[in-house]
């Protein structure tokens, strides 16, 4: 029987490993990885900071498109968390958007240690067409992924259930989607413990 990881690993110091802007810069790493992917301004950086109990792990900004490279973080020498550039930000230069998309595609198709991707969905908007394109890319790359609702504190419960329902319906149609939609808030810490357990679950088949 494999030993179950303790969620307290997320409370220990997390170290920055590398920032990658091109496929040639991908670090040679052996630990399993989980990637966090979402539309620009979905609250990804704030969620990663809450996940690791580190207010300065991932830089946050009120300006969408702040993350412009894949950032690799080492968690307790057990796994690497990968912060992926945001997608779907129309105001970014087209050449920059394409560069981000190509980088992400290269990462998804060429990273065998990627255990699972967590795709973040803004509770205020639900699953958008841009999200649908990302899910299709993950399906094509045969990467297991799970949907995570963010910013649950920004909407009332009725709107939240609407967003969750759309996410569940979308996941049900996708071959690579992992069952279950998580609901989180970086502000109130809602669902953070469940997210940590989901990350640990993703690693269960990689140890």
Strands side by side in the biggest sheet: 1-3-4-2-5-6-7
**Strand composition percent:** 15-25%
Largest sheet: 7 strands, mixed
List how many beta strands DSSP finds.
7
- Give the C-alpha Rg: 16 Å
Q: Note the gap between the termini.
A: 11 Å
Please tell me about this protein's structure.
Helix content is 31%, strand content 20%. With 207 residues, it is α/β, with parallel strands linked by helices. The N and C termini lie close together (11 Å). About 3% of the residues have low confidence.
Question: What keywords describe this structure?
Answer:
207 residues, alpha/beta, seven-stranded mixed β-sheet, 5 helices, 31% helix, globular
Annotate the secondary structure layout.
Elements lengths: L13 E7 L12 E6 L5 H8 L18 E6 L3 E5 L10 H16 L4 E9 L6 H12 L4 E6 L6 H16 L9 E2 L8 H12 L4
Parallel strand pairs: 2-4, 2-5, 5-6, 6-7
Antiparallel strand pairs: 1-3, 3-4
Write a brief structural summary.
The protein has five helices and seven strands. By secondary structure, the chain is α/β, with parallel strands linked by helices. Mean pLDDT is 88; it is low at 60-66.
């Amino acid at each position: 029987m494999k030993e179950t990881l303790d969620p307290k690993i997320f409370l220990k110091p997390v170290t920055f490993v590398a920032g990658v802007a091109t496929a040639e810069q991908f670090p040679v790493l052996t630990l399993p990885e989980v990637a966090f992917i979402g539309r620009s301004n979905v609250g990804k950086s704030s969620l990663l900071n809450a996940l690791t109990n580190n207010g300065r792990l991932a830089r946050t900004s009120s300006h969408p498109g702040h993350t412009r490279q894949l950032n690799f973080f080492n968690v307790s020498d057990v796994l690497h968390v990968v912060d992926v550039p945001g997608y779907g930000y129309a105001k970014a230069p087209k050449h920059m958007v394409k560069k981000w998309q190509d980088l992400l595609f290269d990462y998804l198709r060429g990273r065998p240690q990627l255990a699972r991707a967590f795709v973040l969905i803004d509770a205020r908007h639900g699953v958008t067409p841009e999200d649908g394109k990302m899910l299709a890319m993950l399906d094509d790359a045969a990467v297991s992924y799970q949907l995570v609702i963010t910013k649950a504190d920004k909407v009332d419960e009725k709107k939240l259930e609407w967003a969750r329902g759309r996410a569940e319906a979308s996941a049900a149609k996708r071959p690579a989607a992992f069952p279950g939609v998580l609901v989180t808030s970086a502000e109130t810490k809602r669902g953070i413990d469940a997210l940590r357990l989901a990350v640990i679950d993703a690693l269960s088949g990689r140890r």
